[in-house]
Amino acid sequence: MTSPLRIAVLSAWHVHAEEYGRAALDHPDTELVAVWDDDADRGQALADKLGVEFAPSLDELLARDDLDGVTITTATTAHPEVIGAVIAAGKHVFTEKLLATTLADVDDLVAKAAEKKLALTVSLPRLFHGYTQAVREVLASGELGDITYSRVRLSHNGSVADWLPPRFYDADETIGISGGVGGALTDLGAHPIYLTNLILGGPESTGEYASVRATYTDVTGRGVEDNASVTVATAAGAIGVLETGFVSGLSPFSIEVEGTKGGLRYGFDGRTMTVTVGGETRSVEVPDDVEPPFARWVRDIQSGNPENETLAAARALTAVVVAANESASA
Description:
The chain is of the alpha/beta class. Helix content is 32%, strand content 24%. Helix 5 runs antiparallel to helix 10 and helix 8 crosses helix 10. The longest helix is centred in the C-terminal third of the chain and has 19 residues. The radius of gyration is 20 Å and the shape is globular. The N and C termini lie far apart (57 Å). About 2% of the residues have low confidence.
């Protein structure tokens, strides 16, 4: 019987830290062994919740021979330093998005992980949800014609209901760009971005567009955007609208796609998806979600030759975030 992979959580900074820790507890082939955080009180609290030890020294934790990999839920701006240290120590990495806030840092981390043949997975969970599989199939069929427009919206009320931690409004920790930029788009808006990249550019999308224009507002006055809209345009003239925010609790997650021959709608009535072609509308079955990112990462580690399938989409995601923040800061 193969021994379980031993995993540590690096930082309780992100709201998904406990979720990823529990993924390691629940997976039959992994064992959660420790939590590290540069904030000892925050890290100890999460370690207590998860029932594992708190490791106060990152260097000592990464030097352990019995540690196989880590989940990264630090501040976004800490990713290059922390993930770089993990890779240097020869440990596998499962990280919250973004992988890094610049393309140069993304490329550096990817290259170093490849050199050591490490599994490096960025958690882009909606790529593996059932509705995304259904959208892929409709697009692949060609029945919508040439795609001319898409709109993806995802929001919640974390700012107006005040359930997000204050650190989510610290521009130095979220993205590190001045001018009130670094909140909702970098975090929640990442999902509409990588889904739009898939719709407009396919799995091979680089996230490079003919234009990227962003509008951000700070509704609750915390210093970073909590309400954001980004419009991208392809060289062929297709427009993509990406909407997100922490100030809209009742707005459903939704996807719209328009083409020269028809259109697709998802999310306006629960998990219902419809396709309209030639004036006729039909319902599309939304399949179950496929294997989630954490499980895929574990399988990548076990293979000994990781595919690291999310890295192209993660790079394209960073490309759009950088362009949007530059637009909003202009």
